[in-house]
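Colleagues,

Please find the record for the two-part complex below.
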Amino acid sequence: MKIAVDAMGGDNAPEAIVSGSLQAVQRWPDLEIILVGDPKKIQGCLEKIPGGNSGNSATVSGSDLSQKITIEEASELITMDEHPANAVRKKKNASIVVATRMVKDGRADALVSAGSTGAQMAAALLGLGRISGIDRPAICSVLPAPSGAKVLLDVGANLDAKPENLCQFALMGSIYAQMILKIEQPRVALLNIGSEEGKGNQLTQQAYDLMKSVPINFTGNIEGRDLMYDQADVIVCDAFVGNIVLKTLEGFSAYLFGLLKETLSATFTRKIGAAMVMPALKHMKASFDYTDYGGAPLLGVAGTSIICHGSSNAKAIMNAIRVAGECVEDGVIDDIERCLSHFAIKRS
Amino acid sequence: MKIAVDAMGGDNAPEAIVSGSLQAVQRWPDLEIILVGDPKKIQGCLEKIPGGNSGNSATVSGSDLSQKITIEEASELITMDEHPANAVRKKKNASIVVATRMVKDGRADALVSAGSTGAQMAAALLGLGRISGIDRPAICSVLPAPSGAKVLLDVGANLDAKPENLCQFALMGSIYAQMILKIEQPRVALLNIGSEEGKGNQLTQQAYDLMKSVPINFTGNIEGRDLMYDQADVIVCDAFVGNIVLKTLEGFSAYLFGLLKETLSATFTRKIGAAMVMPALKHMKASFDYTDYGGAPLLGVAGTSIICHGSSNAKAIMNAIRVAGECVEDGVIDDIERCLSHFAIKRS
């Protein structure tokens, strides 16, 4: 399996990207990584990282490594402040465009990037195209929760969605939860302001009606207060709401754990008590760690494109590569295509 | 100052409502409460609660109390599953309709209810009408945060808002933060998926442009991850997003503190450690307690109507009565009206 990794995208590129890629090939021996970007910078990172060029790795020897990791030159870069679609059209040698082209040409099975989400989406739409039956792709995020991970989509692709888009998201999210999270009959819920049928704005009211006829295990509406509890496996919403909810959860979680740390180190007694509970608190915090899930696939395009947090560290990149590998191995895209060929979602 | 309190609305009515009203008159001697509902049930509660009919109160004697708390009969009740506007039109003697009418007729200065939010809004719109210059009212919630409380609106009134509605919410929220939270020049931000201008869906993009010309301290977009930090005093969004964000925060906070309690009592060592940090954790938890803020005013209608959580306890009701009193005393509605007479928000 070959994964093209955009070495130049993200706040911590290229170091964290190269480091995460190395960790991935050391961990999963069947994997080959193509690092896409500036060869000099990538080579520099490979030489600096232990195991990168010295053969110190426990599972992959130095000579193996040179076969496992190759570099594909890409001389341009799309920054966060460029207009995504224009930049993708203009910069044919941008790392995200080259990585996407490799998937299109069959030189890679999937791609991973922590660069501009807009550019990655534009490159996928222009370079790979949509799956037949899907009007709009969706970014499919995994919400970590101690009661079990759940899928939240769309968290960033379509800011002004229509009811039929939400139905397609529901179908894609259900397949993703089934194949990647290994949930047999995923419970699919619509994020809404009330649990009863008939609640919501125009979009969710119409989507509710349509979703009843989609071949999924639709369980109705779910409210914001129940997101963390074991009530649904797939939560569907438009990207504006999904993005705000995801960031609200991330921000609040970081804020609370920060406050907790500060509170518990304020006095001597608390410090002693904190020492006794800290391992448990760290374990609890880790159960919300998004870097375990690494990346969010852009579902609905005809190829596997995994979108990472801009602030991804090496661990997140490694896990995003794992997610890419699983999507390819389990044939998630083929399954979405097959499912849509049997069932067309009616337009409202 | 006279406050009409809907004694029949809410999960814990009438006990918690009557008890909260009693606490309010004991705490604020200038207050008079009119409990609206079934006289027998209300009287029963008053007799059961210490201080209610026995004169045991520390600040108000029994004879004083009978002057401080009176009962207004209302023989009907609107339940959560009724269509709000239809029910309000049909049930002229419902407690929420009677309480609203008392404000309209000048027999009460404000009203408080923990019953059906939809019915309370319908009663306010039909009974009190809108302030001139306001197209749609908004429910204005206070987000408790250790860094300082902030205003979030709309959290429930208008599910499909227009850009000019968001501008009116911004103006009303700013006045509310100034008068009730005593923040001199409240920083008003638009809840969005990115911090840069030009980000967002159609609604927020258009609202951003309009908000620049509103006479408020508009500081631009705010993302979900920054909600808890000290970046804005007033956060503006449509009710669909606001309701989901508010409930997500409430739910996640309850979930995390529950998990924390469970985690810290799992082993003997942790229990000892927990005992040493528990007072600090309780203090931390209390700083997120919504019952301190009690109720959310429905801003934009020509009268003070305070909406409480359906699950309100006595403390939340007492604080909602306090908020009602402050709104009346500070002339929040007059101020919104005055501000709008000087400045008309352009339609997009």
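Chain A touches chain B through 55 residues (CB under 8 Å).

Comments are welcome before we finalize the supplementary table.
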